[in-house]
Amino acid sequence: MYKLDSFMAELEKRNPAQPEFLQAAREILESIIDVANDNPMYEKFKILERITEPDRIYSFRVEWEDDQGNIQVNRGHRVQFNNALGPYKGGLRFHPSLSLGTLKFLGLEQTLKNSLTTLPMGGAKGGSDFNPRGKSDGEILRFCRSFMTELEKYIGPNTDVPAGDMGVGMREIGYMYGQFKRIRNEHTGVLTGKNLNFGGSLIRPEATGFGSMYFANQMLMANNDIFAGKRISVSGFGNVAWGAVMKATELGAKAVTISGPDGYIYDEEGVGTPEKWAFMSYLRASNNDVVEPYAKKFGAKFVPNKKPWEVPVDMAFPCAIQNELTLEDAKTLVANGVKCVVETSNMGCTADATIYLIDNKILFGPGKAANAGGVAVSGLEMSQNAMHISWSAEEVDAKLHDIMVNIHASCVREGTQADGYINYLKGANIAGFKKVADAMVLMGY
Ligand code: 2IT
Q: What separation in Å is there between the alpha carbon of 288 and the centre of ligand 1?
């Protein structure tokens, strides 16, 4: 019999100073421990021990030349977490605070998330402590080249297929793809999130945000409610927030906030107009990472150094980074009458915030289910590359929608409680876990 406390104590001993990894692991284990004990094959095959230990981790030095001619040194990693279901798949994050513990949490989450999509993808994550903020285009190019010169040794279209994450968008993917092609003389689907000109998929940039809204829409319908007319808050102002706001607006909701590292924008008119988003793209491209200029331009309110969770809304969508919504924020949201909180960033809520929301019977969409649309369309990009074809936006969007509806159904199947409350967190963890665990059993040790 697996016991949660002793298993976690051992995991903590083996992974000291990796709080985010331990947080993600505990959240999963709390959900699945009974399921794991129901099937004696899981313990016999040491599935919990194996699923919480990455297959392998590559760490490497990345040196590049800045615009002043100085050599800079960063650190790169690729955590190949689990490939029971398919080639390793997951994004690359460039962020100054990035540590191996963060990447291990993201790799573990990615393993169950990719399982939920039903597409044949294992889980991985990678990145660097390189800070893209304020860097020139030439510096980004030289860093990406150098990073790929090392990463190239460990990846391939049937081995490991990286993509973007925070700090890595279409431009960075293009530069890395160019270097891979230069070294290997191969034009294959080794990265996703590529430009459309050379194998990228339509809808990929918007997919995470779109998928999250499709998922939220299903959540409301399953609870006899409707999406149209809802007031929502969104954090962040990158690709993910952009897709979320666009789709929410299209489905008849009104998004009233976005945020950046400098604070948040409160726009009672709604942030989802093409003109406003063109301005946000311009702000992002200017590489300053601030949202304040939006307030002056569009007559909205700017609240410095705060997150948008104090604004009363029906639904809240953290779209920026892990642990961005705390227990205090959750209490404020609940006091203000929130119905639904949907993690669109990975592990957007702290552990105590998540527990508080579920205890209060708020509809809680966990990141590994709600934000799976991004990697799902990456999986569709791999399919298109393997077949040397490209699908129309309508085809990709329809497949994305189906995938999100199916993920929702899996959560309902595994997470519906006796009192009728759907515990999406538990449902997502159980459904994602079972498929990986069964595959591992079937393949032996
Ligand atoms: O967190 C995620 O799911 C991503 N960053 C997307 C990964 C991918 O391979 O598209």
A: 24
Q: Quick one: pLDDT at residue 291?
A: 94
Same domain, 39 and 136: no
pTM attached to this predicted model? 0.97
Mean pLDDT of 32-42: 97
From the CB of 163, is ligand 1 less than 6 Å away?
yes
CA distance 341 to 318: 8
pLDDT band at 135 (very low <50, low <70, confident <90, very high): very high
Residue 139, CA distances (Å) to 78, 99, 166, 174 in order:
22, 22, 17, 14
Same-domain status, 94 and 37: no
pLDDT per residue as tens digits for the range 163-183: 999 999 999 999 999 999 999
Same domain, 155 and 102: yes
Q: What is the pLDDT of residue 287?
A: 66
Residue 129: what are its φ and ψ, rounded to 5°? -85, 10
Of 198, 222, 249, which residue sits at a domain end? Answer: 198
Question: 89 catalytic, yes or no?
Answer: no
How many whole angstroms from 297 Cα to the centroid of ligand 1?
33
The answer, yes or no, to whether residue 343 has pLDDT greater than 90, is yes
Name the E strands within 53-196: 56-65, 71-82, 88-94, 123-128, 160-164
Query: Where in the sequence is the domain holding 280, given as residue range(s)?
Result: 207-370
